[in-house]
Design goal:
Low-confidence stretches: 1-15
Structural class: mainly alpha
CATH class of the largest domain: Mainly Alpha
CATH superfamily of the largest domain: GntR ligand-binding domain-like
Mean pLDDT: 87
Number of strands: 2
Number of helices: 11
Radius of gyration: 21 Å
Number of domains: 2
CATH topology of the largest domain: Four Helix Bundle (Hemerythrin (Met), subunit A)
Strand content: under 5%
Strand order of the largest sheet: 1-2
């Protein structure tokens, strides 16, 4: 790893140590410092590099194994897993991928292709099944987005809540299980679009049209509004990767 943060062994917050070690190692794997199939250094060497105990290092690798980044093999040791085995909707993995530089076209494409499959269908179901309370919460979330903007932490949190509420309003347990990952994908895509410059387009009207369709209990309009919102958001994200050339 390029950076090594050392921790005092008497630090009482072991969960912080485990989490930070997992964060450092996870970022290194996602950034390509450890390629798939590569065996990690020995437990003793890795713990020494991070300045933590061997038991803390084992806990960090256990965390990353649970996320699909690592696999333990007999007589081989701990190996970086194939990328296809990574839990790509894990909020930590998404964060590490968007924090890696540069963000590649494939990541944006893959996430939006998944969202295009899931979210319009979820919007259609939400239009049929949403409760008055869920609609009220969506309306409140959109109000925060409009007031605080998506350039603020409060606006980003409200945007994540808005998309999560739609998945919850489907009443479908499998859709609901995707809420955390889809919400994280929406959050990081927005952060990425806004990191170098202001958002190229105000996305609030797109969200309002989606909310209006769900409020009207119109599944077709809700699916169309969700698809349009995502297509425009993907265009904005791709522009953030390759901004159009400025002509004199």
């Amino acid at each position: 790893m390029n950076e090594h943060t050392r921790f005092p062994e008497d630090n009482p917050d072991l969960r912080f140590i485990h989490g930070h070690a997992a964060h450092m190692l996870g970022r290194a794997i996602v950034a390509g410092e450890y390629a798939p199939g590569r065996r990690l250094p020995t437990e003793m060497e890795s713990a020494e590099q991070l300045g933590i105990s061997r038991s803390s290092y084992r806990e960090a690798t256990r965390i990353l194994t649970g996320k699909g980044l690592l696999i333990s093999r007999p007589r081989t040791g701990t190996v970086v897993n194939a990328r296809s085995a990574w839990n790509m909707l894990d909020p930590d993995i998404l964060a590490w991928m968007f924090q890696a530089a540069p963000v590649c076209d494939d990541l944006i494409r893959d996430l939006f292709e998944l969202r295009m499959v899931v979210e319009p269908a979820a919007a259609g179901l939400a239009a049929r099944r949403r409760t008055a309370e869920q609609l009220e919460l969506m309306t409140a979330a959109l109000g925060v987005m409009r007031e605080r903007t998506l350039a603020s932490e409060a606006g980003l949190a409200a945007d994540k809540q808005f998309h999560t509420l739609i998945l919850e309003a489907t009443g479908n347990a499998t859709f609901m299980s995707l809420a955390n990952g889809i919400g994280a994908a929406a959050r990081w895509a927005t952060i990425f679009k806004n990191q170098e410059r202001e958002l190229p387009r105000d996305p609030i009207p797109d969200h309002q049209r989606l909310l209006d369709a769900i409020a009207a209990q119109d599944p077709d309009a809700a699916r169309h509004a969700a698809s349009t919102l995502l297509l425009l958001a993907q265009e904005d994200a791709m522009m953030a990767i390759s901004p159009p050339a400025l002509h004199p």
